[in-house]
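Researcher: Let's run the pair from yesterday's discussion. Sequence first, then tokens, for each.
Model: Starting with the first of the pair.
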Amino acid sequence: MYENLEQCVIDLERNGHLIRIREEVDPYLEMAAIHLKVYEAGGPALLFENVKGSKFRAVSNLFGTMERSRFIFRQTWDLATNVVALRNDPIKAMKQPFKHVDTALGAWKALPMKSQGGASAMQEIQISDLPLIHHWPMDGGAFVTLPQVYSEDPDKPGPMNSNLGMYRVQLSGNDYEMNKEIGLHYQIHRGIGVHQSKAVKRGEPLKVSCFVGGPPAHTLSAVMPLPEGLSEVAFAGLLGGRRFRYSYQDGFCVSNDADFVITGEIHPYDTKPEGPFGDHLGYYSLTHPFPVMKVHKVYARPNAIWPFTVVGRPPQEDTVFGALIHELTGDAIKHEIPGVKEVHAVDAAGVHPLLFAIGSERYTPYEKAKQPAEILTLANRILGTGQLSLAKFLFIAAEEDQPLDSHHEIDFLAYILERLDLHRDIHFYTNTTIDTLDYSGTGLNTGSKVVFAACGDKKRELCKEVPEQLKALRGFEAVSLIMPGVVAVQGPAFTDYGKAQQNIQQLAEAIASKGELHSCPLIVLCDDAAFMGDTLNNFLWAAFTRSNPSHDIHGVNSYYKDKHWACDNMILDARIKPHHAPPLVPDPAVEKSIERLFVKGASLGSIKL
């Protein structure tokens, strides 16, 4: 159990989980590039002792592996898991009260505690004193990647009605006045948005505190999708094995254990351009107006350490966050949506674009399921639940005679494609919300969704090599098998949707002219068939981050019947479109520069790249 971040750093180093970087490192691109290389190599946490332009140390890759993350929370993990399970199913505690005494005591100890210290024990600094880490070449400035953004309900103040979220905080660049303003980027379906809406109605600014560092449990709690009634600050105490200590300074809440605290106010309708920034989809999120926070004061504890991570095309360190959340929340989705066995937000596709789900099919248990029924109801529930509602593609299967596991991605997708009735089982939602960071839609937060629902007996055998019908298609000669039943076809570069319709009509007619193609239900039109077919992750990333269901799903022999769209074979247009955000590409000069740290005798010379 750690009282602060430094204790965690010392513990990790003592147990071989951390390396110190002695050399001076530039926060402009170098620190991020080093982190990415070490993370990819499965390396240790990194303590940057000499950050150019700042007196503060920085640490990254704390959660870079599940092994290290479990080590950090080794004393409290089981207790936290049990508490979440009891919140999901409180009847368990009533049936076996003595078995859950420790859990109840642990939950009681997790209550936030108002205490002395706080700002009075910290030094007051400025934003410009911080390690201003610039991650990708086209980023609009430096930003906080592991913040704990704290706000309280204006109608019911206090930590038990607070929201602690991880929202992007821009520290420099754009039109922000250094040391006086910072940008606060939060997306739809976020708790802070509810608080700001209430503050706007009251005609008053929302007081916000941004905590950085502190015990690692505080960081993880800021990204936890917790059961109703369990606050993030309470969970932070529970997971950290130590009550969340707080105080108030000038009306702002201060985490007494944080390494850094930035306090300020968001005034109604006060926005400034924020971004662009590399994001977890593997592209740049572009510049848009987001709330500007007027900085009140900035504090740093003695020996403060600045924690950070780097976001980019998955997998990255935040992939481990997802795995940790899955372990902690366990069967939560089963209790929230009865009938759902499992929901898997596919990390390789950037989490939000693609969901795999398993549900029950119990509407007519007296006869064998003939077509999706209950799982369509479950699909609506899934797409109406919290951040799951940001998904674009949902593949849902009914669990019948054989157990299914949506985390075995090729097997699961193949199971659905074997059973999918392309004339019945494709369901679109148009002109709706998608992830703020997803630029495949028709505007910010706006796009479409599609559900593929499958149950019953196999309808087809999937091709295990490229079918003859997809070879030697004029203008689409490059083809590659991605997985059984899915083939990549390389086409001309996308210019506009009018031309795209002509391209795809040409492709569909050419395929149809060669006869039926039952074994290949999904054809992916792309810019680079070799890349698309090289790895499963390439397919999951490029296909589902570069397409908008309503605009980019086409078909061979497609038609409408009673407003329902159907086809013989799906064609998914996953080419890059002009309105898409650019992908993240490292700076070659920086990649060359950081080689000095990986040579023999340098701090990272022992890392095998």
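Model: Moving on to the second of the pair.
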Amino acid sequence: MLRVMTYFCLFLMTGCVQQHYQPIVNDSLYSIGSSNQLPEKRLTIKSSPLDVMTPKGISIVPAKYYTFSGIVTITALQRTIRLCHTEQIFNLQPDHHLIAQIKRLNQTTAYIEFKGQLNQSLNPLHQRAIISIEQLHYLSNQKNNNICKPQNTRPNFEIKGSQPDWVGYGQKNQFTFIIKGLDTQWAIKKSVITKGLHAFVETKNSAGEQLDLSFTGNGCIDSNNNYWQYETKLYLKGKQIVGCGKYPNQQDDTQAWLGHYRYKNNNVTIELALGKHQQANVIYQYSNGKVQTSNGYWHPYGSSGLKLLLTQHQGNKANIVYHFRRDGVRLQASQQWRDNQKYSFNGALFTLDRMTDEAESESFSTANLNTSTRVFQAQDVISPITTTPAINNAIKRYFTMHKTKTDNSKYWFSEYDLTGNGRKDLLVILDWCEDDGCVLLVFENDLNRYKFISRIAQVKAPLQISKTQRHQWQSLLIKDKQRWLQLDFDGISYPSSAKVKQLASDTNFTQVKLFTTALTKSNAIAIE
């Protein structure tokens, strides 16, 4: 991973190294005017043991689409979109369907739903990112700019017809059909999509009656002059009812991605925050104390994909794209596109571990790098035999965040102020133990709740608090056989394992001991 981050540094960050950039690997599948069979020229870089390949033209970033909704404005001088539930404005690259429908509606603003993606503008005069439209799903004739629907109420699909008037929508595996005051519900048996052009849904009610829906991608105008992606036909008791529909509405799964992710090696620590409304922020903290920042946007695609677009680095315009796949709670990428040129990591993966269950602005404040000391009084901090709802909920959130079942896991805990701010932080030892120790979780007391900070393996109780403070957090002293090791906070977390190389100095012991009560099965606490 050190090699991975060396190249991540070289090709991601402006100003990281002043040199001519060369891609590590050129993938001719995305090269213009080149073939997979072209010979590959290799250049040996003296500063690196790796060979790099000379680019064969410009690589095109593969399209990754997501379903957006917002208020679109199209005039002779303006083509923009404001996404729903945010004030963020993007430039818009419309397709011919949208242009035609806006002209038909004879209005400059409208509510829109479509499949598209976020890109950096290639025009040097444009600072805004661009949202391109791949497929128009819905365009409203209403001119009210506050039309956006709450995201948690959007159905999987919707249909609407006239003569007779009827509506229907699918949500949570149920299809609700409403016609002339009749409101019935049908269980969805099967749902099939064919390349986005056709879709078919089979349903059945409690009486065993069948109701089928078909969607055909030819476009449809309803009785209110709204545009829908599909012509829809409903088949019920041998009868056919015609209408308009949109299917599928991609569900808003952004909440599952929100959070704080981290990569760390001996030279650099990288924090990535995926925030609400497609906002993304990155901080790079180097071992020499240098700090740099990038920001941009993100959106999901498919069932486990994520596109990260960085449009600014150190205040300068950037065009850097990553396609991550989710592996459990981690994000993994095998290449990046920088100014539309593809770079990879010579077969390695760039991996970011998820650290929190939601992105918070304070996660990106620059930590105090100074070393300071506190005055301590010797004490034994026991592990209580009863817990509190706040502690139990913090541990449950950790399990949920890492998609791990609590099953029959139990724990012990101690509380101590690790930052000197007057609030007791939470240290939890899980009963995930081997011969060399157990798993320790550290949570910060963040007033309203405990915030997960670190997971440390191979910890044996009791442990001690060190006089040394790093980045406003006290170092921890862990006993390993007949020696004591010191674990320093690095501005983001403690080391992931107690097996560190730093020996504790005799002058750093405070005699503040945590988990002084013997940890046994009988006094372990169950997660409720």
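Researcher: Give me one sentence on the second I can quote.
Model: Residues 262 and 306 are 16 Å apart (CA to CA).
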